[in-house]
C-alpha cells in the first residue's frame, strides 16, 4: 500500500441470522446506515434479503456494466487445517462481520480496507482475495476494474480465522485526476458489495448473496480511472 493514513472504520454489522442482517456504518462524513444482504445483479433492496435465497447469477444489463478483475497468480486455497489438526469449514458470509475503513489524509492516492471479523463461535478459513463490486444510488453495478496485487507480507493460503479475530484486505485508488489536482471524476459509487474469496468448494461466490456496505463519501468516493488495486487478505495487526 502506498499511503496509509489514520483509518476511520465504518462498522457494518452483518447478522448471522438466516432471514435478516442489520448493522451500522459511520464515517466522518456519513450517518449510520443499515447493513443488508444483496443479490448480485439486482438493485439495492428496500429491506434485508434472506441469506437462504437461491443464488442469482450476476448478469448486469447494458446500462450497468460488470466490473472485471485482473488477477495476480496465487496458490489455490484448499480446505484449511486448524491448530489442532482438524479441518475447519470455509467461512460463510453469515460467519463474518464486515466493516470498511478509509484513510483521512490528503493526496491523489487514497487507501482503504475491507475488514472481516469472525463473529461465529468456531474457526473458519478464508481464501486470498475477496470479490468486490461497487454500486450507484440506484443499485446498478458500476464499471470498476479490480487489479489484484501482492500484499506486504506473504499470504496465508488459506487463512484460518479464529472466533473474534479480524482479517483485512487493503485497497487503493486515485480520487483526483492528477497529482496536483483536486478535481474528482466518475464513477462515484455509494455502496460496495463484498463476497468472500472463491474456494474449490465455491469457485463463484459472486453468484450468491453479498454483504452490502456503504462506500466512502465526499471526494474519497471518486474512483478516477475506474480502477482499484486490491491486496490479498492478511491478518489485522
What structural class do you assign from the helix and strand content? mainly beta
What share of the residues does DSSP label as strand, in percent? 25-35%
Helix and strand sequence? EEEEEEEEEEEEEE
Shape: globular
Percent of residues in helices: under 10%
How many domain units? 1
Gyration radius, to the nearest Å? 17 Å
Q: In words, what does this structure look like?
A:
The protein contains no helices and 14 strands. By secondary structure, it is an all-beta fold. It has one domain (7-40, 86-235). Strands 1, 3, 4, 5, 8, 10, 13 and 14 form an eight-stranded mixed beta sheet that branches. It has a four-stranded antiparallel beta sheet with strand order 2-12-11-7, with no helix packed on it. The two termini are 15 Å apart. Residues 1-66 and 72-76 have low confidence and may be disordered.
Report a brief summary of the structure:
It contains no helices and 14 strands.
Amino acid at each position: 500500500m502506498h499511503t496509509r493514513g489514520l483509518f476511520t472504520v465504518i462498522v457494518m454489522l452483518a447478522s448471522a441470522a438466516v432471514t435478516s442482517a442489520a448493522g451500522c456504518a459511520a464515517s466522518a462524513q456519513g450517518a449510520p446506515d443499515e447493513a443488508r444482504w444483496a443479490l448480485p445483479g439486482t438493485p439495492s433492496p428496500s429491506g434485508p434479503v434472506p441469506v437462504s435465497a437461491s443464488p442469482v447469477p450476476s448478469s448486469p444489463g447494458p446500462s450497468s456494466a460488470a466490473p472485471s478483475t485482473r488477477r495476480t497468480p496465487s496458490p489455490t486455497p484448499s480446505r484449511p487445517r486448524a491448530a489442532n489438526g482438524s479441518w475447519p469449514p470455509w467461512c460463510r458470509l453469515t460467519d463474518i462481520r464486515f466493516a470498511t475503513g478509509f484513510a483521512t489524509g490528503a493526496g491523489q492516492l487514497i487507501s482503504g480496507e475491507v475488514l472481516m471479523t469472525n463473529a461465529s463461535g468456531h474457526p473458519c478459513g478464508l481464501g486470498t482475495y475477496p470479490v468486490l463490486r461497487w454500486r450507484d444510488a440506484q443499485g446498478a453495478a458500476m464499471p470498476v476494474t479490480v487489479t489484484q496485487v501482492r500484499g506486504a507480507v506473504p499470504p496465508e493460503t488459506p487463512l484460518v480465522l479464529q472466533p473474534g479475530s479480524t482479517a483485512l484486505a487493503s485497497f487503493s485508488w486515485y480520487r483526483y485526476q492528477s497529482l496536483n489536482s483536486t478535481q474528482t471524476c466518475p464513477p462515484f459509487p455509494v455502496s460496495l458489495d463484498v463476497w468472500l474469496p472463491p474456494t474449490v468448494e465455491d469457485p463463484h461466490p459472486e453468484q450468491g448473496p453479498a454483504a452490502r456496505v456503504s462506500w466512502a463519501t465526499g471526494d474519497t468516493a471518486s474512483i478516477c480511472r475506474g480502477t482499484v488495486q486490491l491486496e490479498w487478505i492478511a491478518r489485522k495487526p
